Here is the input.
Amino acid sequence: MFVVEKELKSTWKIFKWEILRLTSNWRRTAAVLLLPAAFMLIALNIFPFLINYMSTGNFGRNPVILVDPPASFRDYLEEIDGTTAYKFQIISAEEAEADYSGANFTKSLKAGTIWVYFEDGDLPFDEEIARYYENLAQGLAGAISHARINITYDDNSPITAPKAEAFEDLIIEGYKDTLLDRLGGNFREEGKDPFVVDDFNIVTKITDNRSVANSNAARVIPGIVMLLAYYCVYSLACDLFAAEKDRGFFNKLLLSPISPKSIVRGKVLTMMTVGGVSSLVTIFLLFMSSWLNWSNDSMSLLPFGMFLTPLQVLQVLLVIIAAVYFMSSCTVFIVFSLSKLQDIMINLQLPLILFLMDFFLTLFRFNRPLTVEYTIPLHNNICLIRDIYASQAHLWQFIIVVGLDILCGALIFRINYKKVERL
Amino acid sequence: MSNNAAIVVDNVFKRYSKNTPDIIKGVSFEVKPGEVYGLLGPNGAGKTTLMQMISTLSRPSSGQIRICGLDSVKDSLEIHKKIGFLTTEIKLDPLSTPDKLYDFFASLYSIPEQEAAIKKETSFATFGIGPFSRKKIVELSTGMKQKVSIAISLIHEPPVIIFDEPTNGLDILTSKQVTDYLLGLKNQGRAIILSTHIFSVAEELCDRIGILVDGRIAAEGTREELTASQGKDKFEDAFFKIYQENHHEP
Here is the structure.
């Protein structure tokens, strides 16, 4: 018992020293804690543009072309002007026929354009709707409207499809309410269906966009989060282990009356704490970024650590901390297996390439991970974080992933302790 | 081997892997309390390797090293309380201050805060560190860094001091300050072992000198004994004769 207490005290001394050392210099603190978050914010804000470019070959917003919209829709557009991410272009049916027939039409779809056609019924669009409401008000059985809104887009494009779906949910649904106000007549008093907004962000329809945003986030965020967690571990391994070993300061610590295990544990605890706090800061900044986001575009919700429940946030944090533990064991192994600082630095950078590859793999895959993938250390962390974002995570996956990280990390640390003792 | 020796090195060999030759080949000597033992040899003779083994930073491949009666492999943590290892190779954290480093090492040696504060004041006054105690290490001169390193290494007042190349890279003023300090420690009854390739340091400081050539102690004795044994007038000439007789090109 006394030995354990002594070891814990020694570990605490090293941990306290390292934390004070890291926080005593604001540049060092900012580099470790804020740089990953800032990098992620930039990356996630650039991501929609990147995807847009990859799918359409264009930067910026592609237009939604409205062909001969009725007066009610034109009025509605004036009302929502400036509150939407969509750029509208109104053309007549004749212009559409002349400029966008055949190959030109296909080309415009591939460029990410969404086409909206207003199809009249027995009467012109607005009159057809007004008659429909009138029939409803009079209790006419089988009241029906033949007015239709057709939305055409390239559903092979990963950016246009969700944009079109969001357009239908946000713009068309809102328009329906306008119709009720404008054309509902006697029916308006009874049938009004108020526009639902959330208290958090009065413009963004969070619940409607959640599925779209989270499915995109599930592909983007896990890779970046792991990449940034490794960046954190990498920079700390360089500072706490490689540089100190090179300076000879690590030897000075080894010559103190505390055990080599306590020294390594204290430093690893520092890495795990800083890794965890850094992730927390990242998620918080993403949250704040989204809070300030007033756009209705579902893709614009990407910078939010998405719509995770508190339990899901906790799960993500635990998965990251477990990953940081395993990463730390690997980096310490590299540091104590090589003698030259230059070799250590190069070898510590190699996993960054693997994480980058895994990031792109996750980004461009549309199927769920195979069961066997949950047994590949660190890749399985990316798979699990992806599942948490997509609300598809199961307890067994969580146990396997976190368990494997801890088990593999502990085994490698056993080797590391022997290496340190035999230095 | 005598029972009262502070450092006992007994037939020690060191090799880094099975396929490489021995770097240290059957070295034996001992250092008594109040004695300064100098390991003199050219670069590559194995001085630093031997010093690292004595300080427990590496293990002998065979043979035994005992510090104050404790085994260097089995009792390494206990030995750390009894030794102060100084080397110009150890560089302190550039962004820390002497003040913080001293406090940190005092906590590692479990020295109570009040006692540590008194020791710090005395030690910093001895080396003239006081005015620089809150400056970052990176802003200090090489000599001042070395003084801080010495102050920290001897924080626990160890009975055995191991000093690898004590005056390497230091200006003459700091060198003098360091050698005077070491003589003061010797007079306090501490056992000191130092390695050097500088004759003046060995001559001025050491009671006995072991001449290390190609991993072996080629000769051992006082400066006078070594000079006389080679029939020379100067210690420097005796050293070169011993070196030429014992050095074999690989």
Observations:
- The CA atoms of residues 50 and 188 of chain B lie 25 Å apart.
- Chain B touches chain A at residues 55-59, 77-78, 80-81, 83, 85, 87, 89-93, 95-96, 100, 104-105, 107-110, 152-153 (CB under 8 Å).
- The beta strands of chain B are 7-14, 24-31, 36-40, 62-67, 70-71, 83-87, 160-164, 191-196, 208-213, 216-221.
